[in-house]
Amino acid sequence: MDSTGIPIVDMSKLRGPWPERPAAIHDLGRACQTTGFFQVVNHGICAEVLHGALDAATAFFNLPTEDKSGLVSDDIRQPVRYSTVSEVDDDGEVKIRRHVLKQYSRPLETWIHKWPSEPIHYREKMATLAAEMWRLVSELAEAVTESLGLGRGYLASRMDRGFEMMALNYYPPCQDVAGAVCCAPHTDYTLLTVLLASQQGLEYFHRESGSWRPAPAGSSTLLVHVGNYLEVLSNGRYRAALHRVVSRPGAAARVSVASLPSFAMDESVEVAEELVEDGHPPLYRGSTLSEFIEFLSAGTRGRDFMEQSLKITGHKMHSDP
Ligand SMILES: O=C(O)CCC(=O)C(=O)O
Ligand SMILES: [Fe+2]
């Protein structure tokens, strides 16, 4: 655990022999159960790939506005779309909080030709990162299902058919005196999210202490958090991590790249039967990613979907701080 209470998962131990792997699996399960987020070390994704992707993302966001305008869309069903999140402050001034590029990334050959064609090497750098992040998530998914007592191969075929989207965020340098919330508190719909950020600003809600905790950042630092679908699959044993991004006055622009993995669009995510037992009834109803996307495109917030559509008992899904 680091000084901010963020657990660290050492991938070299997860890849190790007995008794190293079972001990590491136990620690991973504990991290998913308590905080819902952790940093992974010895992840095996080389610095060149991570830096290359951050540089390509930065170069994309720095392109002239007209070069990005063709990708602008408010329709969240678009496989590649660019959008801007802004806010009007008390003086009526518009403050841009972040620019976002979302792009489907798996299966790669279906989507890559829709990705930005500029800057040069953008597709190549992002494709390499997407594949590496997917590999890491698949390895973590094996360990997570093992930690739940479901076995290592439990999700193998669903992961093979799985879907991945990448979210690239660009936060302009802070324009406020005090730090502003640039990405509102939310949980991700994913199984597990893997996140790379050029600098600090991300905060996790630490349930035990009831406070927001800053996450570490850096061009080789990878963070992982539990998403809604893992919460559903685990029947609430693991809880999706509530997170947000705050601006840091005086800091330079911040860039982050996240891999958002889930099952295939039309594959339902259900509570694992094995985790339903006396005293542990199923807490969620199954649903697919396409249903979720349809729900969001009708203009309803993501959290409402989880609360209205998935929750079938009085179980409280997220507590707003
Ligand atoms: O920029 C970040 O660090 C986090 C972004 C995020 O939470 C998201 O894209 O879902
Ligand atoms: Fe997120």
Task: Report the structural category.
Answer: alpha+beta
Q: Looking at the structure, what is the overall shape?
A: globular
Shape-level CATH architecture: Sandwich
Amino-to-carboxy terminus distance? 23 Å
Number of helices: 10
CATH class: Mainly Beta
Concise synopsis of the structure shown:
By secondary structure, this protein is of the alpha+beta class.
Question: Can you give a write-up of this model?
Answer:
The chain has 321 residues and is α+β, with helices and mostly antiparallel strands. The chain has a single domain, classed as Jelly Rolls (Sandwich). 30% of the residues lie in helices and 26% in strands. The chain has helices at residues 11-14, 20-34, 47-61, 65-68, 108-111, 122-147, 156-160, 228-233, 289-297, 302-310, and strands at 8-10, 37-41, 80-88, 94-106, 163-171, 181-186, 192-197, 202-206, 211-214, 218-226, 243-246, 254-262. The strands form two sheets. The chain has an eight-stranded mixed beta sheet with strand order 1-2-10-7-12-5-4-3. Strands 6-11-8-9 form a four-stranded antiparallel beta sheet, with no helix packed on it. A hairpin with a 4-residue loop joins strand 8 and strand 9. It starts with 7 loop residues before the first strand and ends in an 11-residue tail after the last helix. The model is unreliable at 313-321 (pLDDT under 50).
